[in-house]
Amino acid sequence: MKQSQLFSKTSKTSEADATSVNHDFLVRAGFVDQLMAGVYSYLPLGWRVLHKISDIVREEMDAIAGQEIFLPALHPKENWVKTGRWESMDVLFKIKSQSDSEYSLGPTHEEVIVPLAKKHINSYRDLPKAWYQIQTKFRDELRAKAGLLRGREFLMKDLYSFHATREDLQAYYEKSKQAYTNVFTRCGLDAIITEASGGSFTKEFSHEFQVATENGEDLIFTCACGFSQNKEIAKVGEGDRCPRCGKEKIKAVKSIEVGNIFDLGTKFSKDFDLKFTDEDGTSKEVIIGCYGIGISRLMGAIVEVHNDEAGMIWPEEVAPYEYHLVSLGDNDAVYKQSEEVYEQLTKSGKEVLWDDRREASNGEKLGDADLIGIPTRLVISPKTGDKIEVKKRAEKEIKIVSIKEL
RNA sequence: CGGGCUGUGGCGCAGUUGGUAGCGCGCGUCGUUCGGGACGACGAGGCCGUGGGUUCGAGUCCCGCCAGCCCGACCA
Questions:
Q1: Predicted local confidence at residue A392, as pLDDT
Q2: Closest nucleotide (CA of A28 to C1')?
């Protein structure tokens, strides 16, 4: 991609309203644009990142037998009345059609997928099943905030698993923990598996995947041994002895919830009468688990964790491009050589953003490269001769290499 | 939803006791520059969030509404 052709431009100055790091950098670098509180457009660079994250999620969900589907965002009121959430869920967006029919915009999809499952699950032979989608969710948050971290419209992966027995759900639940950990690790994040409230559906705990960062809005109590509880259920406080290992002291850590997994039990099976015939011929309720990852929030969380004063520092697997080729100086030879390098890299399958803007100053280009935060910067200038300067965004060191060594 | 702050060219801001709007960045043209957002000249661009009120006259004063941000509450 030639930067001169890029749809979005960068900005030297922060927006007045940008108080969170992710909002500030993502807007300034042209990854996203805010339409209104909690609602963002994704521009080419941001959309690429979202795709990278989505693809990682797909690979890991497929690895635990997930099958991707795509459900509607527009839901009939009836299904939400049936589960009681038309009244009880305060973040539910409710809309009315011109003929006065009522609908909701999906904040989550149990109300859609369970009736769907009813048409495809009849026997124990049909179980287990795991279906997931990556979809826009709507939640009528009273206070959207912190850039991509709390939106009213956002991208989310939700997987639902259907089981014949509690044991089977438990086994799958544990597998999902590993899959989730893989997702976050690949996204450059260290997610802490944290016990949290199970909500109104189950007496069991749920688990949240929390990323420690100063700008997080959650508070968790953790121990080096792996113990971690959300403040909403924590029976320990900072400085207490860890109830699990009995040695270390508990730390209070601010964090961002990037994923959660729930044991829904039979709550929704009961609401929609989702039953299967077991081996012994008896009819039983299907046991359901639900597993979410906030894809767009994850993008914001990555920025919150990986940045410096100059801009973002994208982890390799989620970076919009692998290489940022920067041509310095208004010099024909430089641009000719740059074009060759750009073609060569692109042909060999590398993803390259080439800053080919001849009219832009060197400082502007280097500043943009830091702001955008592509992992590897390649510089060609009158100084580099027939070599190329290579610098990792996260490091200070500069290497001079020949084209062949790239 | 309670409390607070803020709405003025694309962005960041200034605008005095009320007298018909200005700066920086960005943008356009020309020229000079070229390794950390360079410089000069000329130029384009504003129903001052919105509705009402006070006044001879409102960006400025008063009231309502809308929007954005922050704190809190909320967040299956």
A1: 96
A2: B11
> Taking the CB of residue A119, how many other CB atoms lie within 10 A of it?
8
Please give the Cα distance from A217 to A277 (Å, whole number): 45
Using C1' positions and the CA of A202, the closest nucleotide is: B76
DSSP assignment, residue A242?
A: P
What is the nearest nucleotide to A334, using C1' and CA?
B34
Nearest protein residue by Cα to C1' of nucleotide B10: A11
Q: What is this structure's pTM?
A: 0.94
Residue nearest to nucleotide B1 (CA to C1'): A142
Tokens for A185, please give them.
Answer: 């690790």
The tens digit of pLDDT for each residue in A370-405 reads: 999 999 999 999 988 889 999 999 999 999 999 888
Strand B bases within 7 angstroms of protein beta carbons: 1-2, 6, 11-13, 24-26, 33-38, 67-76
The answer to whether domain A18-308 has CATH 3.30.930.10 is yes
Dump pLDDT digits (tens) for A188-205.
999 999 998 875 555 567
Domain at A321-405: CATH code? 3.40.50.800
Domain range annotation of chain A = 18-308, 321-405
Q: Say if CB A198 and CB A206 are below 8 A apart.
A: yes
